[in-house]
Amino acid sequence: MVSRTTADAKDEVVVLLIGMRINRFRAVRLWLPVMLAMLRMLRELGKEPARGLRSHVLLTASPRTYYVVQYWESKEKLYAYATAPDAFHHRAWATLNRKERSGKLRGQVGIWHETYVVPEGSYEAIYGDMPAFGLAAAHGQIPLEKRGRYAKDRFAYRSQQGPVAEKTG
What we know:
The chain is 33% helix and 29% strand. By secondary structure, the chain is α+β, with helices and mostly antiparallel strands. The protein has a four-stranded antiparallel sheet. A three-stranded antiparallel sheet has the order 6-1-7. A hairpin with a 3-residue loop joins strand 8 (157-158) and strand 9. The chain is elongated and about 55 Å long.
């Protein structure tokens, strides 16, 4: 493991944050299926890399809030998975919508997601004594020197023509 590295991401980066919040701990029969559905979707995506999920990180924000940071090949592949009738997501979303319409979930469990399409030059990363993690797990990990020692250098990196020369004067 190299001491300091950066992610080898090129072009735009697609990041999905998706999660749940347990509003009532006693409503296990309502929030547990939501949590298990997310884990099942991640297993499905892991078995089918062509769907476009490059990497993910499971996280918790509190004893009530659990989420996944997902890195996708493209927004098109993310949308294709979200709408694919043969994917588990389609069935899970239909079930969740039925429960929501019937009022069964109201106040019991919260769900959320945020999607970001980040253009090249709008992200940078540094990892010190870390295995590939996050963006580096999704796109590969390279020695820091290949993109620049400073954040401004890594922000300036362009995969098509290499680092952008800094303007002076």
